[in-house]
Amino acid sequence: MSMKSKKPILLVSGLGLLMVILLVVFSFYSDSKEAETKNYLGPAGIPVSREMRAELTAPPNVPGPTGRRKAKKLIVDMEVLEQEGVMSDGVKYIYWTFGGSVPGSFIRSKIGDEVEFHLKNHPDNKLPHNIDLHAVTGPGGGATSSFVAPGHETQFSFKVLNPGLYVYHCATAPVGMHIANGMYGLILVEPEEGLPEVDKEYYIMQGDFYTKGENGERGLQPFDMKKAVDEDADYVVFNGKVGSLTGDNAITANVGETVRLYVGNGGPNLVSSFHVIGEIFDRVRVEGGDFINNNVQTTLIPAGGAAIVEFKVDVPGTFILVDHSIFRAFNKGALGMLKVQGDENKKIYSGKQEEGVYQPEGSGIQEMPVDNDLVQVNKTATSLKEKMEFGKATYMRTCFACHQAEGQGIPNAFPPLAKSDYLNADLERAIDIVLHGKTGEITVNGKKYNSVMTKQDITDEEVANVLTYIYNSWGNSKKEVTQAMVTSRRNVH
Fold it and tell me: What gap in Å lies between CA 282 and CA 293, rounded to an integer?
């Protein structure tokens, strides 16, 4: 072939080389601009690549690690379910849940992810709900954007800016009641490089529950608001029920493996003193953040907080997980088990065991004698003015969260008390609702409401005062309710 015939080939080869050089330069420039943007904006500047649906898991399971994947548009699809479950043997409870479990579904994300959150409220539910994620930078942690009535769906988005382990919970009024009924969970935000690999990972979350019946009293137990306000928990449990992590439900590992526990505390009231009997935490990510503490025996986890604990298991046996506020563990349910299989190492532990140690002791309570002469006398209202004063105090303590300061209620959730045709039409019905509660659909001022009014655990005097205050406020019918009226209705149902 002549030199003349080779010129087109050389020209094409030269153009190809030029294209490769231009692509390399462009790629370098793009990477530099991306790094420049990221350095300027921090995590907010991390770009996302493609879209993926989040894997959600019920406790004690955890979704797979994010590894070194790039930030994504992460779709989280979660449904609120109000459903009956088992609190303890023979004891049932109506739980309010994120995803059908207590705690709610575990969410695993990575710093820089753009989370598109879909929250559905099942049409059979009675109440509106929302979600406040402590990993969100924004008003209410998402609560202001996620209020959703039964049968509806809401959507909002947020950029994940801070690595760590964060609590989420419902923040619909009354907030404490929603959390106390099981509406909490954890969202993990991994750093860009991911977390170090371990052999086993588990999801554990403590919560305190308040029931009308005492601990162990059989049957379907309703929530008790007074006990919750008094922080007098009947049950303190891991993962929503007594025995959720014992027996066949125990978590497992093998000798020589490293175990990582994502531990949260939904509260709503009590701090957790988390401890594993017979183990020392090699590493604790204190409060779920960056600070790592080593060789820890017991770690404090505040209500609405979390921690990540890691330890290597060196010998076989059953290791007991507890809240070391110890009566909670052995008498109220905050007890779990890690069963480890493998060869013994008698240099570390002799292996001698005794049956019956570190088992639940049940709810039997021993009491010291009390002085029955010590009684508290409450002042009784003697005038309409005092009834209004005392009634307002009761209203602000028990009714304000749902019905608001001026009795305006919350649209699509809680009916108004101001100028209420339903309230003013039937005084005895109003007394009955305060005494015994109310569920089912009602129509107030032409609008339908289908929620739950809980039975109020207050005295007949307080009922009379608060209803007198309501009837004499906000354009209502000026009725005065007496204690005798309330007492006559006390045993009607």
Answer: 8
Q: For tokens 């969410």, what's the residue?
A: 107
Tens digits of residue pLDDT in 466-478:
999 999 999 999 9
With tokens 């010129």, the residue in question is 7
Q: Which amino acid is at 433?
A: I
Q: Residue 272 has which token pair?
A: 């957790």
- Joined tokens for residue 343: 């060869």
Q: What whole-number distance in Å separates Cα of residue 427 and Cα of residue 301?
A: 47
Is 266 within 8 Å of 205 (Cβ atoms)? yes
Looking at the predicted structure, is the pLDDT value of residue 375 above 50?
Answer: no
Q: Give the per-residue SS3 of the chain.
A: CCHHHHHHHHHHHHHHHHHHHHHHHHHHHHHHHHHHHHHHHHHHHCCCCCEEECCEECCCCCCCCCCCCCCCEEEEEEEEEEEEEEEECCEEEEEEEECCCCCCCEEEEECCCEEEEEEEECCCCCCCECCEECCCCCHHHHHHHCCECCCCEEEEEEECCCCEEEEEECCCCCHHHHHHCCCEEEEEEECCCCCCCCCEEEEEEEEEECECCCCCCCEECCECHHHHHCCCCCEEEECCCCCCCCHHHCEEEECCCEEEEEEEEEECCCCEEEEEECCCEEEEEHHHCCCEEEEECEEEECCCEEEEEEEECCCCEEEEEEECCHHHHHHHCCEEEEEEECCCCCCCCCCCCCCCCCCCCCCCCCCCCCCCCCCCCCCCCCCHHHHHHHHHHHHHHHCHHHHCCCCCCECCCECCCCCCHHHHHCHHHHHHHHHHCEEEEEEECCEEEEEEECCCCCCHHHHHHHHHHHHCCCCCCCCCCCHHHHHHHHCCC
Report residue 292 as tokens. 């790592």
Task: Give the distance from CA 316 to its chain's centroid.
Answer: 33
188: β partners: 108, 165
Query: Cβ(121)–Cβ(202) under 8 Å?
Result: no
Cα–Cα distance measured from residue 301 to residue 410, given in angstroms and rounded to the nearest whole number: 33
Token couple for 356: 């019956």
Q: Closest Cα to residue 82, out of 120, 49, 108, 118?
A: 120
Amino acid letter, 36: E
Cα separation, 190 vs 131, in Å, equals 21
Q: Which two tokens stand for residue 160?
A: 């994940």
Q: What are the CA-CA distances from residue 117 to residues 12, 78, 166, 203, 348 (Å)?
A: 51, 8, 16, 21, 48
- Per-residue pLDDT of 145-171, as tens digits, reads 999 999 999 999 999 999 999 999 999
- The tokens for 39 are 């350095």
Distances, alpha carbon 79 to alpha carbons 106, 120, 148, in Å: 13, 5, 11
Please give the model's pTM, rounded to 2 decimal places.
0.79
